[in-house]
């Protein structure tokens, strides 16, 4: 079986039967699809696809997972993953949200945090049923993105980007709740990762190493590191550093604090230690970063 690889423009033309204009930005688009959608067999996408089913059902394959998506369910197909969709019911109706990774990374959210949001763990089927309130809220966001991109309103890309970010955060939230409530043994690693992230968010100004957090959890550093890496795609140390840098950026940009004050708030032994840490992650010194925000 030959797996075809699709860029977003080619996928829109071939499978959604829409011809975007030469000047049309296809980095983010929403399409309404129904039972007339033709089966899509064994393709790989060079973009993210989010499916929100509003009615009926169909069968989907993502990677090695086979599942049916029914009304009020949401699924995300990550790039470079074998994807198929077929067996549509007569009343099938859904929204397809297509966006490129670069589209969301151009926003104000730190790129490393976006990588975490976009990471879809291949160990779990990427589908979740939404409660009525969550479904209605998500459908509203899909419709607003469709409206913004079709009308080409002022700042339509910026507004659409915010809606996409909300959808990604909502998906991750539902994902965490479902996995934490599951009884499968495989979710042990997810629960370790979830607890680790909560501890980091609470203690990042005091603890800077994986070992310190592992000690709080009464686990070995090696096991915590393995769980975090397997579940998020990034190292445990990177998560700690990302959280510290995010807080540093907020303090430097919005509170106009001195470098020494920021260093003290984040628990660094000295200003020079903080400056080396910040520059090592961001590529610029905190002084230079702060001055750029002022200009």
Automatic annotation (TrEMBL):
Claim: Transcription is one of the keywords in the record: yes
Keywords: DNA-binding, Transcription, Transcription regulation
Domain HTH araC/xylS-type: 194-292
MF annotations from Gene Ontology: DNA-binding transcription factor activity; sequence-specific DNA binding
InterPro entries reported in the protein's UniProt record: Homeodomain-like_sf, HTH-like, HTH_AraC
Highest taxon in the source lineage: Bacteria
The protein's name in its UniProt record: Helix-turn-helix domain-containing protein
Organism encoding this protein: Sphingobacterium olei
